[in-house]
Design goal:
The complex is a heterodimer of chains A (360) and B (123). Chain A has 11 helices and 18 strands. Chain A is of the alpha/beta class and 360 residues long. Chain A folds into 2 domains: 7-82, GMP Synthetase, Chain A, domain 3; 98-349, P-loop containing nucleotide triphosphate hydrolases (Rossmann fold), CATH 3.40.50. The N and C termini of chain A lie far apart (69 Å). With 123 residues, chain B is of the alpha+beta class. Chain B has one domain (4-122): NE0471 N-terminal domain-like. Chain B is 15% helix and 28% strand. Chain B contains 3 helices and 6 strands; from the N terminus they run βββαβββαα. Chain B has helices spanning 29-34, 88-93, 98-103; strands at residues 4-10, 14-19, 24-28, 62-68, 72-77, 85-87. In chain B, the strands form 2 sheets. In chain B, strands 1-2-3 form a 3-stranded antiparallel beta sheet. A 3-stranded antiparallel beta sheet of chain B has the order 4-5-6. Classes of the chains: A alpha/beta (360), B alpha+beta (123). The A-B interface holds A 89-90, 188, 218, 222, 225-226, 229-230, 249, 252-253, 255-260, 353-360 and B 1, 3-14, 65-71, 73, 85, 87-88, 112-113, 116-119, 121-123. Bound molecules: adenosine-5'-triphosphate, magnesium ion and zinc ion (4 copies).
Chain lengths: 360, 123
């Protein structure tokens, strides 16, 4: 006579599995769905808050082990799923189908912000998320070249159609520039252009929309925070920024508008030798990491100075997808997952604020 | 950053905010209108007051209050004025309760970063 296994027994066992980011067990978090028990076989789904979860495999194996330890269980089938939760911001007319908008900024230009944006966006898509990338760098748009599609955009039913490449939708403010006319977007012009990219582009349903901000300026950032709710921002810096001093203006702007800083990425941290793959710390070590820890901001990772990163970008395909087995590609994917975890944590810990209308 | 925990619009007359530190504030819409920081009410460069505060009608209604990003409120007043963005920090600073009035020092620090960086919305 086989031993009867109850739902309660399985859930009790699964309660021993904690999500290390949300600090709660996976049953209380509501991750367990579709529990089926048939004699010695137990099957269930774990529905995570992001497909780019850095601890997906860990949770799956811990859950399997916990249930397998119940007397009478012979087989455990765990299906991993994900349903991205939306930022709990004010309801806005723009971007209703977009769950999380993440700004990518830096203190100064040329730190590799666009390269980071393109690689993480594609990395999220490789993990199964629906992703968009908006190049809001009105002063020097570069995303179309990195994505290998520098041509014009189409307009259909009065909506601008984003381009699609490497599994993501993208759009650049550079598409609004005419021929080789210089871009002289300033103040109100920049404001209108950003608004247009948010409201007149058919982004559709997205889990994540990354916005590549122009370096240092406030116009684009302000329009962004006033037009759509932001999940938060990522700061890209280099070891030369000396403890992030150069990014301070950007940091302050984010703080003044109460935008959550999801993390800091240090680019061109060290030199990766193309011959032996050896790491050389030509700039010293850990500047951005120390500074971010001091400020209580998550450190998402460090990217080497690697000519293959530039070659792939120039060739129209981010390294994360064109050379997926390379060391640099793996680093971008880890950074993307660390960021995904931070977005989930931020959404989990925030409450939606509303204006309650009462009679006088 | 200080932020509201609860925002209640009491008809058209007043706005009640409970802050993240549990401090309660209640503002008449007249007081809010008088403290509008938009480019029409306060000179962007010099910071000089353009709006004559005493000319704001005594019984001015608030028509609509909406949340702007994660840092401010947008308010449409009975006189049609709606260009101001009321940054939380500033709102807390102008809390009219006795305790805050007693604590507030004259010559207040600037609310915004550089005028170049943070401007209120002027369409
Ligand atoms: N880790 C890296 N290793 C080698 N080259 C890199 C790396 N990151 C970026 N680059 C290269 O550095 C240059 C600048 O990068 P990118 O355009 O991404 O910077 P940015 O911060 O967006 O600059 P801008 O301020 O002009 O927008 C590009 O040629 C890019 O390919
Ligand atoms: Mg760039
Ligand atoms: Zn070598
Ligand atoms: Zn005003
Ligand atoms: Zn008070
Ligand atoms: Zn506008």
């Amino acid at each position: 006579m086989p031993i009867e296994i109850s739902d309660a027994q399985v859930l009790e066992a699964l309660k021993s599995v904690q999500d290390p980011d949300l600090h709660k067990d996976i049953v209380s978090l509501g991750f367990i769905q579709n529990l089926r028990i048939c004699e010695g076989t137990v099957a269930f789904d774990i529905n995570l808050t992001t497909p780019a979860c850095p601890v997906k495999e860990l949770l799956q194996s811990q859950a399997r082990d916990a249930v397998a330890a119940i007397p009478g269980v012979e087989q455990v089938n765990v299906t991993m799923k994900a349903e991205v939760k939306a930022t709990k911001g004010p309801d806005t007319a723009a971007l209703k189908g977009v769950k999380n908008i993440v700004a990518i900024g830096s203190g100064k230009g040329g730190v590799g912000k666009s390269t980071v944006a393109a690689n993480i966006a594609v990395a999220f898509a490789m993990d199964g998320a629906k992703v968009g990338l908006l190049d809001a760098d009105i002063y020097g748009p570069s995303i179309p070249i990195m994505m290998g599609q520098p041509g014009e955009t189409l307009i259909r039913d009065n909506l601008i159609q984003p381009k699609v490449a490497h599994g993501i939708k993208f759009m650049s403010m550079g598409f609004f520039a005419q021929g080789d006319q210089p871009l002289i977007w300033r103040g109100p012009m920049a404001h209108r252009a950003v608004e247009q990219c948010l409201t007149d582009v058919e982004w559709g349903d997205l889990d994540y929309l990354f916005v590549d901000l122009p370096p240092g300026t406030g116009d684009v950032h302000l329009t962004l925070v006033q037009t759509v709710p932001l999940a938060g921002a990522v700061i890209v810096s280099t070891p030369q920024d000396l403890g992030l001093t150069i990014s301070k203006k950007t940091l302050r702007m984010l703080q003044e508008t109460n935008v959550k800083i999801l993390g800091i990425v240090e680019n061109m941290s060290y030199y990766l030798c193309t011959h032996c793959n050896e790491r050389e710390n030509i700039f010293g070590r850990g500047g951005a990491k120390d500074a971010s820890l001091k400020m209580g901001i998550p450190f998402l990772g460090e990217i080497p100075l690697d000519t293959a990163i530039r070659k792939n970008s120039d060739g129209g395909a981010p390294i994360v997808i064109s050379e997926p087995k390379s060391a640099s590609a793996k680093i971008y994917r880890d950074i993307a997952r660390a960021l995904a975890a931070q977005i989930s944590i931020a959404n989990f810990n925030s409450v939606k604020l509303e204006v309650v209308e009462e009679p006088a | 950053m200080i932020a509201p925990k609860e925002i209640r619009k009491q008809g058209g007359k007043s706005l009640k905010i409970t802050w993240s530190d549990n401090h309660p504030s209640e503002y008449t819409f007249r007081l809010l209108r008088q403290n509008c920081q938009c480019a029409m009410c306060v000179d962007e460069r010099s910071g000089a007051q353009i709006l004559k505060k005493e000319e704001v009608p005594v019984a001015l209604d608030g028509l609509q209050v909406n949340i702007v990003g994660n840092y401010a409120l947008g308010i449409t007043f009975g006189d049609g004025h709606s260009t101001g963005i009321f940054v939380y920090k500033h709102l807390r600073k102008i809390c009219p309760c006795e305790q805050c009035k007693a604590e507030s020092k004259p010559a207040e620090a600037k609310i915004y970063l550089d005028k170049e960086d943070l401007k209120t919305r002027v369409d």
